[in-house]
Amino acid sequence: MSGIHKPMPPRYIAVPFLSGGVLPIPTPTLTVTPVSGSQINVSIGYSGPPGATSYAFEKSSSSNGPFSPVASGTSSTFSDTGLPSSTTYFYRGRVQVTDGRFSDYTLVKSASTLAAVPNAVTGVNATATSQTTITVTWNAVTSLPLSGYHVYRDGVLVSTQTGTTFNDSGLTAGTTYTYVVAAYNAAGEGVSGTDSALTFQVVTPPGTQIKLVPGNGWWFDNQFWYNSSGGSGAEQTAFNAAFNTLAANPLNKYFYLSLTWGHAEGPTRGDYTKAFNAIDTMLAKAATASHKMGVIVEIWQTFFNTLSVTDLNSWPQYVVNNQWINAGVQAGANRTQLKWDIDDVWTAYNNMLIAILDRYNSHPLFYALSSMDESVAISVTDNGTSWLNSTHYNQKYLEQQLLMKQHAPNTLIYVPFNYLPPGGATEAPTMANMITTLQNADPYGFIYGGPDPFLRQTTFQKLVAGGYQSTTGMGDIRHQVLLMNRTQEAYNNNSSTPPSLNYSTALANNSVLLTWNDETWLTWKYADQQAAINNNNGATGTPPPGGNYTLS
After folding, report:
1. Residue 274, beta-bridge partner list
2. Whether 338 contacts 325, CB under 8 Å
3. Is the distance from CB of 102 to CB of 21 less than 8 angstroms?
4. Tens digit of pLDDT for each residue in 42-97?
5. Helix H segments across 305-385?
6. Which H/E stretch holds residue 483?
7. Rounded to whole angstroms, how far apart are CA atoms 514 and 246?
8. Alpha-carbon distance 390 to 387, whole Å?
9. 234-247 and 273-286 helices cross at what angle (nearest 10)?
10. Which CATH superfamily is domain 125-198 in?
C-alpha cells in the first residue's frame, strides 16, 4: 500500500574494546607501597560488576607521563623490583572486564623507594671484662643515612647504640655469649657482624690443693710421640730410655708430654684415642717412680712443615682434608701454616682440649695442660708478611685458656707466651693484659712461661720481674712461672752443673729441663734474666719463699 513503509531492521554498530569503554564500568583504585630501597608494591582495587578478568599496570618517572606498560595479567598486584633507592615513580592501572571492555585508568599515584640499608658492620669484637660483664666494640659504618646500631645478645635485641661500643652487664659467670651488631636506618638493618665471648669464672676456690708442686720436670723435645706407622716415635723412645734414671731422683717432680695435634686426634674429627693412649702410657709409667711424679701435657701445633707425609701428620687428617692450612707461606720453603682465623679451627682444637681435661682433671698425677701454639711465628718471621689477625688471634687464645680452666678446677692451665702477636711496642702490654685477665678470672688456676729461649723471652722475663709494672699494672706472678730451659744451652753457660739432676742422661735424650718456682727459675738463668731482676730490685734479689702450691 502506498504511504505505508516497512519498518527498517535494527542497525548494529560494532563497538571496539577501547580504553574507557562505551558503557559505564566502575573506575578502579590504585595503592602503591614502598617496601625497601629497591622495591615498590602496586595493587589495583576493583569490585565490579562486571567482574575483572585482567589487570594492567603502567609506570612513569613523571606525573604527566609518558606511561609505559610494566605488567599485566590476572593478578591484581605487582611488585616493581630492582629499583634505585630514594627514587620516586608514578603508577596508574586499569582492568579488563568479562565482556572484554577496559575500565578508565585509575588516578595516578606515586611512591618513593626507601633509603638504602647501611653497609655491613665489620670488626665486631666481644671481650669479657669481668665475671659478669662483656664489652662489645665494632667499626663505624660510614654509609648514610645511619640511625644507629642494634646489638643482639644470643638473638635478642639488648641495646640500641649511636656509637661503636656496648658494655653488657649482669651476665652469668663462666657463660659464652654471642653478640650480633647491625647498623640500621629507616630502610632497615644492614648485614650484621658477630662475635662471642666467655665471661670469667673463678673455678678454683680458696683452700683447693693444686696437684702440681714446685720442682724440676723433663720435656723430651722431639714432639713426635708416634712414628709414621703409629709405633713409638722419637719422643716416646727418649722418654722410655731416660725414665728410670730421672724417676729415681727425688728432685725431679714431673714429666712433660708434648703431642702435636695430629698425634692427639684423628684421623677423623673427635677421635682422641691417640691422645688418651699416650697420656695413659706416661701416667702409668710415672706412677712407678720411687717418689711422686706427675705429668704435664702439651698439645703442640707446629708453625712450619715441609709438605711431606710425616710432617703433615702433625695435623689430623681431617684438618688437611678440610684445607685448614695455608700452603707455601714462604716462597721456596714449602712451608705450611694453620688457618687460625677460621673459627671452626678454634672449635675443633678447643673440643680436643676439653675432652682431655674432662677425662683427666681428677687424676692425681695429671698436673697441667697447655695449648702450645707456634703458628703465629709465621706472621713475625716470614718476609715481613702478617698471616694472622693479631686482635682476633689474641682474643681467641684468651678465650681458649678460660674455656680450658672451666673444665679443670683441680688442674693447672699452663699458658705459654712463645709467639704472642704482634710483637714490637705492643708486646709487653698485650702479654700483661692477658695475664691480668686470666688472674682476675682465677688467681690460682694458671701458670705462665715458655721455652728458653723463645721469641718473647726477654719481654716475659722483664714483665715477671716487674720491669713493666708501672706501665701495665700487672701483678706479681713469680710464684706462677714455669720456664723450659734447654739444657744444651742453659747449662753449658753456667760455671757448674749439679750432677744430681742427671743432666747427662737428659742431654743424651734431647730433653729440656722445666723449672717451676722462684728458687729454681732464678738459680739457672741467662744474663738478661739476672739484669731484669737487678734493675727491678737494685740487688741480686731474693725471691719469695717457695714450697707446696697450697692456696690460702
Report:
1. none
2. yes
3. yes
4. 999 998 888 899 999 999 999 999 999 999 999 999 999 999 888 999 999 999 99
5. 309-312, 317-321, 343-360, 377-381
6. strand 481-486
7. 13
8. 9
9. 20
10. Immunoglobulins (2.60.40.10)
Distance CA 373, CA 174 (A): 24
Q: What contacts 34, CB < 8 A, 6 or more positions away?
A: 40, 41, 111, 112, 113, 114
The CA-CA-CA angle for residues 42, 33, 63, to 5°, reads 70
Q: Determine contact, residues 369/406, Cβ cutoff 8 Å.
A: no
**Cα–Cα distance between 143 and 387 in angstroms, integer?**
29
* The three three-digit cell numbers of residue 237, written as one number: 723412645
438, 414 Cβ separation under 8 angstroms = no
Three cell numbers written together for 109: 599515584
- What's the alpha-carbon Rg for the chain, to the nearest Å? 37
Residues 465 and 461: their CA atoms lie apart, in Å, by 6
User: Which residue positions in the chain have pLDDT lower than 50?
Assistant: 1-2, 8, 10-21, 206-209, 332, 453, 486-503, 506-507, 510-513, 516-552
CATH class of the domain comprising 215-303+340-537: alpha beta
Per-residue pLDDT at 202:
52
Residue limits of CATH 2.60.40.10 in the chain? 29-112, 125-198
The structural architecture, per CATH, of the domain 29-112 is: Sandwich (2.60)
Kindly report, as residue ranges, where domains of CATH 3.20.20 are found in the chain. Answer: 215-303+340-537
Q: What whole-number distance in Å separates Cα of residue 344 and Cα of residue 350?
A: 10
DSSP letter string over 170-224?
Answer: SPPTT-EEEEEEEEEETTEE---EEEEEE-----S-TT-B-S--SEEEEEETT--
pLDDT reported for residue 439: 86
Instruction: Count Cβ neighbours within 10 Å for each residue of 82-117 and write b for 16 or more, e otherwise.
Output: ebeeeeebbbbbbbbbeeebbbbbbebbebebbbbb
What local confidence, expressed as pLDDT, does residue 384 receive? 53
Between CA 178 and CA 128 the distance in angstroms is: 12
33 Cβ contact list (under 8 Å, min separation 6): 40, 41, 42, 43, 111
Exposed/middle/buried for 437, CB within 10 Å: 0-12, 13-18, 19+?
Answer: middle
Three-state DSSP state, 284 = helix
Please name which of 131, 134, 116, 128 lies closest in space to residue 186, comparing C-alpha atoms. Answer: 116
If one counts every other C-beta atom within 10 angstroms of the C-beta of residue 128, the result is: 27
CA distance 463 to 469: 7
Q: What is the pLDDT of residues 375-403, one digit of tens each?
A: 665 555 555 556 677 788 888 888 899 99
Q: 0.90 exceeded by the pTM?
A: no
Please state whether beta strands 294-301 and 366-373 pair in parallel, antiparallel, or not at all (unpaired).
parallel
Whether omega for the bond prior to residue 453 falls within 30 degrees of 0, making it cis, is: yes
